[in-house]
């Protein structure tokens, strides 16, 4: 019997691709080219499913153009802002994501950014590498102490909760904003704020963990930054669209914000070049879930979701 055809848009870890090839007539992308829309359409002819990443956009036009054979878009990501979920549902295409398995890896990057931004890690590293480190003095490269300070987590899903767990190790006082208050066993002592208005004035550090939706677009902007204490630090491992980058850059330049740690940007990978001119921003290239363990787990979970849909069962992580 012929195996069902699937398209895998990007190069996935070897073990994940081996399972895909075992079970499907899988069209792979060994060179890991970023596929154009036309290439996705051409390669998905006769495919029953597409295993995709956030680097491909499935807007309404793209969804409408997909072959009728496609029943599922199984994303190797938690974020699904690159897919028009309603348009997919209207065509009977199930969309799935990979929550849960990437929480710790992404929280590790949030912690790295928080510490790196507060303690001027990339600035210091650049200095040492450039051979420009000439002295030690009691006032040399002073940063912001993290331990004991107040952190405000915006978005208390799996990643936000994992970050909270790590921040407790730094004796931070935790506050959070979320669509819904968590039960006490998940809050673990963190204080819930129903609105940003009560949360932001308390935050020495703000950590963004919310999904990218029309409601969270430019949630961090001139007005919300103004509500923060002077010298606050912002960390973003969610999506670039959650931050108005021009307003963030202005606040980093003026000193209103001491620093920022950013793993995600509005226009990846062509980020706003002004970021690179600022010493007080710690930049990473969207590495949140980029560990071998986590990328394996994400790939396998995407295949689990795909298999469930194709078997006519409820997908573990259906989002539409
Ligand atoms: C996610 O899971 O959303 C990561 O950002 C990778 O796409």
Element layout with pairings:
Blueprint: E1 5-8, H1 14-23, E2 25-27, H2 37-43, E3 49-52, H3 60-65, E4 72-75, H4 85-90, E5 94-96, H5 103-118, H6 121-129, E6 150-154, H7 158-168, E7 173-177, H8 184-187, E8 191-193, H9 196-199, E9 205-208, H10 222-226, E10 232-236, H11 245-254, E11 257-262, E12 281-283, H12 292-310
Parallel strand pairs: 1-2, 1-3, 3-4, 4-5, 6-7, 6-9, 7-8, 9-10, 10-11, 11-12
Helix pairs in contact: 1-12, 5-7
Bound molecules: (2R)-2,3-dihydroxypropanoic acid.
(2R)-2,3-dihydroxypropanoic acid is lined by residues 53-54, 77-79, 102, 288-289.
Describe this structure in words.
- This protein has 320 residues and is α/β, with parallel strands linked by helices.
- It has two domains: 116 residues, 3-Layer(aba) Sandwich (Rossmann fold); 181 residues, Rossmann fold.
- Helices cover 33% and strands 15% of the residues.
- The strands form two sheets. A seven-stranded parallel sheet has the order 8-7-6-9-10-11-12. Strands 2-1-3-4-5 form a five-stranded parallel sheet.
- Helix 4 links the parallel strand 4 and strand 5.
- Helix 1 packs parallel to helix 12.
- It is globular.
- The two termini are 31 Å apart.
- The model has no long low-confidence stretch (mean pLDDT 98).
- (2R)-2,3-dihydroxypropanoic acid (DGY) binds next to loops.
CATH topology of the largest domain: Rossmann fold
Oligomeric nature of the chains: single chain
Q: Tell me what portion of residues adopts beta-strand conformation.
A: 15-25%
CATH classification, class level of the largest domain: Alpha Beta
Number of domains: 2
CATH superfamily descriptor of the largest domain: NAD(P)-binding Rossmann-like Domain
* Largest sheet strand order: 8-7-6-9-10-11-12
What percent of residues adopt helix (DSSP H or I)? 25-40%
* End-to-end gap: 31 Å
Q: Based on CA inertia axes, which overall geometry fits?
A: globular
Number of helices: 12
